[in-house]
């Protein structure tokens, strides 16, 4: 199994930003443009794969949080044998998510079906798991601003890693949902669940799958920069739970349901949260 890191996309020190002047999901805080000076950095061109995470576990004996907790959330459509799953319950307002006992990175559906092919992104990974892997691998999680800068390829404002062209159910640019969520996925992109970490076209910096495939953890705390009462309540919840920012959307995203595969889109989850569509990639020193 491969245990070497993938190539880096390297970016020089520069002024950059996170957010967009044309927000779609305003309540997520994606419309507040945050500007700052970035130091030079590198980011791995693809997410951490199942194979690479397996090497980490084999060498360290690490036990993920989903394994410790004993269950995790699974997208029900991934279960080819749902009767074999030990379902503990559902998820409020999202019946397509099931809490399933023994779901973790090796068996992400909680059944005897192993993880997807070794070259797919590892999933069922919490923020704490990602940080533990990063420490072992000599890397770190990117900041939200670094992640967006890299997803844009270090170029000017663009909605997606490939530009501004909207993906449709027939025009494939990345691994997202096609059809009618959550009941019908036509799989025009060739995948129902995750795709290989190097699937689809690279962005101008050589990076794969900044849009779709799996959500990617970043180092930053999740906060909405707004004075509205709804934002204040969301920030209070996020602070209480220690939420961290996730970027990029996943194979479950569709414009009719979760239009968060845009570069500026974001969400937040508690650091011990894992799910079928959550993984990560590493940032490093540009000299690595």
How would you describe the overall organization of this protein?
There is one protein chain. This protein is an alpha+beta fold and 288 residues long. It has a single domain, classed as paralog of FGE (formylglycine-generating enzyme) (Alpha-Beta Complex), CATH 3.90.1580. 17% of the residues lie in helices and 19% in strands. The chain has 5 helices and 14 strands. The longest helix is centred in the last third of the chain and has 13 residues, at 229-241. It is globular, with a radius of gyration of 18 Å. The chain starts with 7 loop residues before the first strand and ends with a strand. The relative contact order is 0.22. The mean pLDDT is 95.
Number of helices: 5
Termini separation comes to 22 Å
**Percentage of residues in DSSP E strands:** 15-25%
Write down the oligomeric state.
single chain
Name of the CATH first level: Alpha Beta
Order of helices and strands: EEEEHHEEEHHEEEHEEEE
Structural class by SSE content: alpha+beta
Query: How many whole angstroms does the radius of gyration measure?
Result: 18 Å
Q: Which bin fits the share of residues in helices?
A: 10-25%
Tally of strands: 14
Largest sheet: 4 strands, mixed
């Amino acid at each position: 199994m491969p245990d070497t890191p993938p190539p880096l996309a390297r970016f020089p020190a520069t002024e950059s930003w996170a957010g967009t002047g044309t927000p779609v999901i305003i309540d997520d805080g994606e419309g507040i443009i945050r500007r700052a000076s970035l130091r030079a950095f590198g980011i791995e061109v693809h997410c951490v794969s199942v194979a690479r995470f397996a090497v980490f576990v084999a060498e360290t004996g690490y036990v993920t949080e989903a394994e410790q907790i004993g269950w995790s959330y699974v997208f029900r459509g991934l279960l080819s044998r749902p009767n074999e799953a030990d379902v503990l319950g559902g998820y409020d307002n999202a019946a397509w998510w099931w809490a399933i006992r023994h779901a973790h990175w090796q068996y992400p559906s909680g059944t005897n079906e192993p993880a997807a092919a070794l070259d797919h992104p590892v999933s069922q990974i919490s923020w704490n798991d990602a940080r533990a892997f990063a420490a072992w691998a000599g890397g770190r999680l990117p900041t939200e601003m670094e992640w967006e800068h890299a997803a844009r390829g270090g170029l000017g404002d663009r909605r997606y890693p490939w530009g501004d062209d909207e993906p449709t159910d027939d025009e494939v640019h990345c691994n997202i949902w096609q059809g009618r969520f959550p009941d019908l996925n036509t799989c025009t992109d060739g995948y129902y669940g995750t795709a290989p970490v190097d699937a689809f076209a690279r962005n101008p910096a050589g990076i794969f799958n900044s849009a779709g495939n799996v959500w990617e953890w970043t180092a930053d705390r999740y906060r909405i920069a707004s004075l509205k009462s709804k934002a204040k309540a969301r920030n209070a919840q996020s602070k209480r739970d220690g939420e961290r920012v996730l970027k990029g959307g996943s194979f479950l995203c569709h414009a009719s349901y979760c239009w968060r595969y845009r570069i500026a889109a974001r969400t937040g989850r508690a650091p011990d949260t894992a799910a079928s569509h959550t993984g990560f990639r590493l940032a490093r020193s540009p000299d690595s």
